[in-house]
Each structure stands twice: as structure tokens, then as C-alpha cells.
Design goal:
Order of helices and strands of chain A: HHHHHEEEEHEHHHEEEEEHEE
Number of helices of chain A: 10
Order of helices and strands of chain B: HHHHHHHHHHH
Helix content of chain B: over 70%
Largest sheet of chain A: 10 strands, antiparallel
CATH architecture of the domain at 1-81 in chain B: Orthogonal Bundle
Radius of gyration of chain A: 29 Å
Helix content of chain A: 25-40%
Radius of gyration of chain B: 20 Å
Strand content of chain A: 25-35%
Structural class of chain A: alpha+beta
Largest interface: A-B, 84 and 85 residues
Oligomer: heterodimer
Strand content of chain B: under 5%
Chain lengths: 384, 198
């Protein structure tokens, strides 16, 4: 049961008001109405008197105001519906371009990254070799304590993805435990450690190891079908708006999130990377947030946007010389009551790629789920 | 049947017509207030809501449905009862989750679980920022949609969306401490064309 249906059940059987209470409320209202009716009559006289004298007393102004209620019609729902229809109707005539795009400087930097991505061809992976994508990812974790406080801390995953030369062969994914990375008070520090200890104990100290052809981990492909993605930036952005519609805190935030997710896989072909950068340049509000941003010891230009819905900022950090995504980050701009101090970088990923001659042995398609003897119910759902 | 705005417009000339607005919505306003406070305080909030609404009827925005406006006024009036409301959250017990379900639960362990859940929900609601809590309860208990909540609170729809997102997430974590962690991990784990992954 989700939190909303649970909340809807709370005190749902509250009793109806007593008839006596309704009667009292109604009588009080009619009494007030009766008093005002008398005032209205007097005000009406005052208006007549005022006209004669050529002045406008306050009472007359008040009556005039009351007689002409301000009207406005909300166009939010209608507008949103119209946009959705257009969006679904076609890929070509979509969201992209209607509302402007990134700030000019950010658009230039993204364009430069796109060109560099195409010029710097993908690393050559010979048959039998693997492209190794190492992703260090820091995530925010929030716990609600018995005392009723939200306590947050950061943990880090160090994952290794081995991508075969022929992508329909077995991919291998080593997923680390969530190590404590940073905390903001003693309670958070203790919780991070406890959570880590529990996770290690549950897995008997062995990190999760997955193996699946065509990246079909956990019953779903973990990478998009790159062949199916449009290479035209505007069409690609429309496609992204379409598949992310309704997700995230805003359409633009969800679109940028999708681009970050896709780049983060580390396996997007050069022409897709280039198109993704150009598509990001079409998202309104995207700007350069830091000229020289440092992530994991590497520097690049930080391009992102502020999400007003949750007062956070999401950045892509790009090496514009090579067009490589160094990583991404998320910054909490204010204190939203989660136990993160304002300005905390609550998530970042750093991605490195290289070519290696071998991948670890072993692993199953569903990793931890297989270890626990869960039943695959299809579509990424497991019953344990 | 006249729409609410027609009745309210009529009441500008003929004040007694406003009683029709009371007859239409008093029970709903009472129910909303009683869930946040208690039945006694709800009597007062209901009565006062319509007095305030009557005084301000010239400024009514002309919507066909006056309920968002009325629930917005009631929400403001409930603020005067902040201490009572805080006590109500503190005293949230398993039976508040619905009598039928508790009767159906036979195992003592499950009943304990319901008590703990009620306590956690109460604690989370009590600690929500007031604006977030108002948005959440107008949505869940006032049965308003986003536009309605926005109109009730006099804030943009985007603000309602973010308040609801935040409040729901806090509630979700309060009910299930593992939820937030899983969300974050899922975000990192699955990259596909499915909007669910975002």
C-alpha cells in the first residue's frame, strides 16, 4: 500500500457534523448576512448622496468593488493538455525548440563537446576484449528515525561494467556494497555504518556479480537501444520529452536526467553522445554552472540546470576537449528538511572507460535476486 | 442547478443566497477539519469558514466550484489550532488507519505493526513544513486536484507539485525506512527508455 492510500484511510471514518452544529453554523451565517443586508442598504444611500456631492466615499467604493468581482480563468489544465496532444502526435513537431533552449554559452560548450565526441572516435575493442566502464557513484540516503527526524548521509558505489566487443555476448557487472562516504552528524555516521554492515552480512561479504547477454540484467536491458535513437538533436529531444513525460519534477528536469542516465552508461556510441549533448542544448534553463569543475580529480566544464521544484541543481561535467562525460552531480541548494546542509553535493557519479583483455568469471543474470532464490515474474519484477 | 459562482454572485445583491453555499459544502469542510483537529474544533472551523467566505465573497475568483476556496479558508483557520493539531498527530493510533482493516488483522504482530505505522505517520505529518502539510492534506483529504490545491493555497501549480512530491516522499520514508535508499539505487541501476526509471 502506498503512502497516499494509507494517508487517505486515516480517520476516514470521522463522524458527520451534528445537525445542531450545522444549524448553529447556518444561523450565524444568516445573521451576518442579515446585518450586511442592512449595511448594503445604507451604503446604497451613501452612494446616492455621494453622487449628488460629486465625491466618492469609501463605502461607495466598497460597494462598487463588491458588485464587480474579479474574474480570471485558469488556463493551466487546458494548456498542459494541448501540449501533451501535440507531443504525442509526432516526434518532429514536439516540445523541443518551442520554449527556447539552453543559455548561449552553455549551448556553445555543448556544441563543442558534441563535435569533440565525434572527432574522438570510440576506443577500439578487439574480439575477446571488453570495454570496462568504472562508475563511482555517490548517492544520498535518508532515514526516518524513531525519534521522528530525517537523517541523511552519503554512500558510494564503485561499479565495474564489462562490455563485450560483440554486445550480444555476455556483459559482466560487478556491483560493490554501498560504502559510507560522508555524513553530517554522529547519528548519520552510525546509520551509514550500520546499513553497510547489514548489507555486507546479508550478502556473506561477496559483492553482487551479474552476467547477462545484451545487458539484460534483472530482466530488463540496462542500456537504451542506441540504434533506435534519432541522431537529429531536435528529434532526439522530442523523443526524450516523450519517453520521460510525467516523470521527475519537471519536463526539462526529467529530460536532462534521461540524458545524464544515458551518458552515464559509458557505452553510448560517439554519434549518440554528440546528439545527446546537442539535445541538452535545446533544454530551457540549461546553463554553465561552473567553468572548471573538479570531480574525482578530473576537471571539466559544468553544465546544468536548477530545478525549482525541489531547490536542487543537476550538472553534467564534460571534458569539452574530448567530448567525454567526466561525471554528473546533484547539489541541494537549500535545506529542505532532509538532514542535508544547504549546498551539499548529494550525488555524483564519475565515469572512466578503458579497454581490458578479460572480465571476471561467474555471475548470474539477476545477481542478488538469484542468490536469494527469488522468482522472476518478468519485466524486472521478482518475488522473494 | 446553479454553479457556486452564480450563487455567490447572486449573494452580492441578496446576501441570504449565500446560505446555499453553506448547504452545499459545510459537511465537506467539517469533515476536512475534523480529520485534522477533532469534531468539536471542526464545528468552529466550519462555522467560521463560511463567515470569512461571506465577508470575502466579492473577491471570489469565479470558479464553478467554491470548494477549493472554502477549504483554503478552513486551512488558514486550522492554523489557529496548531497545538490541537499537533496533539492529534501525536495521538494517531492504529484504529485511525481504518476500523475494518484492523478487525481483519488477526495476528498480534500485525496489529503492533499498524500501531507503529500510525505513530510514524503521525510523527511525519507533525514535522512536515506547514505549507507542505497543507498541500498534502488538501489533496488527500480535501480531494482537491493540483489546480484545486493551488487555488486553495494561492500558490502556483508547480509549487503544489513540488510540495506534494516532497511531502509524499517524507511520508514514504517514514512508513518504510528502506524506501528512499531503494529509490536512489534504482535510479542508478536501471537506465532504459522507461519513464519509470527516472
Amino acid at each position: 500500500m502506498d503512502e497516499l492510500s494509507l494517508l487517505r484511510r486515516i480517520r476516514s471514518e470521522v463522524r458527520e457534523p451534528e445537525q445542531a452544529a450545522l444549524d448553529r453554523g447556518r444561523a450565524a451565517l444568516l445573521e451576518r448576512a442579515g446585518t450586511e443586508a442592512g449595511m448594503d442598504a445604507r451604503a446604497g444611500l451613501a452612494v446616492q448622496g455621494a453622487r449628488v456631492r460629486g465625491t466618492t466615499p469609501d463605502a461607495a467604493a466598497a460597494v462598487a468593488k463588491r458588485r464587480h468581482p474579479v474574474r480570471w480563468v485558469g488556463l493551466g489544465a487546458l494548456g498542459a493538455g494541448a501540449l501533451t496532444v501535440a507531443l504525442i502526435a509526432t516526434n518532429v513537431l514536439g516540445f523541443a525548440g518551442w520554449r527556447g533552449g539552453a543559455e548561449p554559452a552553455a549551448a556553445d560548450a555543448l556544441q563543442a563537446a558534441a563535435l569533440a565526441a565525434v572527432e574522438n572516435s570510440d576506443p577500439v575493442v578487439a574480439p575477446g576484449q571488453y570495454l570496462l566502464v568504472e562508475t563511482d557513484a555517490v548517492y544520498g540516503n535518508t532515514t526516518y528515525t524513531e525519534a521522528g527526524d530525517y537523517v541523511s548521509y552519503l554512500t558510494m558505489n564503485r561499479d565495474k561494467l564489462y562490455v563485450p566487443a560483440d554486445r550480444s555476448d555476455d556483459w559482466v557487472w560487478v556491483r560493490s556494497f554501498r560504502e559510507p562516504y560522508a555524513s553530517f552528524n554522529a547519528e548519520g555516521k552510525a546509520l551509514a555504518q550500520k546499513s553497510y554492515d547489514e548489507e555486507v552480512a546479508e550478502a556473506d561479504g561477496v559483492p553482487e556479480l551479474l552476467r547477462a547477454p545484451d545487458a539484460q540484467f534483472y530482466g530488463n536491458s540496462t542500456v537504451p537501444d542506441f540504434d533506435a535513437l534519432p541522431r537529429d538533436p531536435q528529434q532526439l529531444l522530442n523523443y526524450i520529452y516523450k519517453v520521460t513525460a510525467g516523470g521527475g519534477n519537471s519536463a526539462d528536469g526529467a529530460a536532462l536526467g534521461w540524458i545524464a542516465d544515458t551518458l552515464r552508461t559509458g557505452v553510448a556510441p560517439a554519434d549518440v553522445r554528440a546528439a545527446l549533448y546537442q539535445a541538452a542544448a535545446g533544454i530551457p534553463g540549461v546553463e554553465i554552472t561552473e567553468q572548471v569543475a573538479n570531480l574525482d580529480g578530473r576537471t571539466g566544464i559544468s553544465i546544468g540546470r536548477v530545478e525549482s521544484a525541489d531547490n536542487s541543481r543537476q550538472d553534467l561535467i564534460i571534458d569539452t576537449q574530448t567530448g567525454a562525460l567526466i561525471g554528473e552531480r546533484r547539489v541541494e541548494l537549500g535545506d529542505e528538511g532532509w538532514g542535508f546542509p544547504a549546498g551539499t553535493t548529494t550525488g555524483f557519479t564519475a565515469v572512466r572507460t578503458s579497454v581490458v583483455d578479460s572480465a571476471p568469471e561467474g555471475g548470474t543474470q539477476n545477481g542478488q535476486f538469484d542468490r536469494e532464490g527469488c522468482v522472476d515474474k518478468g519485466n524486472g519484477n521478482f518475488q522473494c | 442547478m446553479s454553479t457556486d459562482n452564480e450563487i455567490i454572485e447572486r449573494s452580492l445583491h441578496s446576501a441570504g443566497a449565500f446560505a446555499e453555499v453553506f448547504d452545499r459544502h459545510a459537511r465537506t469542510v467539517h469533515r476536512y477539519a475534523a480529520r485534522r483537529l477533532d469534531a468539536g474544533a471542526a464545528d468552529d472551523v466550519m462555522s467560521e469558514t463560511f463567515l470569512v467566505a461571506f465577508e470575502r465573497r466579492a473577491a471570489f475568483d469565479g470558479s464553478h466550484d467554491a470548494l477549493p476556496w472554502l477549504l483554503g479558508i478552513a486551512t488558514n483557520l486550522i492554523k489557529k489550532h496548531a497545538r490541537l493539531e499537533a496533539r492529534a498527530w501525536k495521538g494517531l493510533v492504529a484504529s485511525d488507519l481504518g476500523r475494518v482493516d484492523i478487525d481483519a488483522i488477526e495476528q498480534a504482530a500485525a496489529r503492533l505493526d499498524a500501531s507503529a505505522t500510525a505513530r510514524r505517520i503521525g510523527g511525519a505529518l507533525r514535522r512536515l513544513p506547514a505549507g507542505d502539510r497543507d498541500a498534502l492534506l488538501l489533496y488527500a483529504w480535501g480531494d482537491l486536484d493540483y489546480e484545486g490545491v493551488a487555488s486553495a493555497l494561492g500558490v502556483p501549480v508547480g509549487t503544489v507539485r513540488s510540495r506534494l512530491n516532497r511531502a509524499r516522499r517524507k511520508l514514504r520514508i517514514a512508513i518504510d525506512p528502506g524506501a528512499a535508499r531503494d529509490e536512489e539505487v534504482d535510479h542508478g541501476r536501471i537506465v532504459s527508455a522507461s519513464p519509470d526509471s527516472l
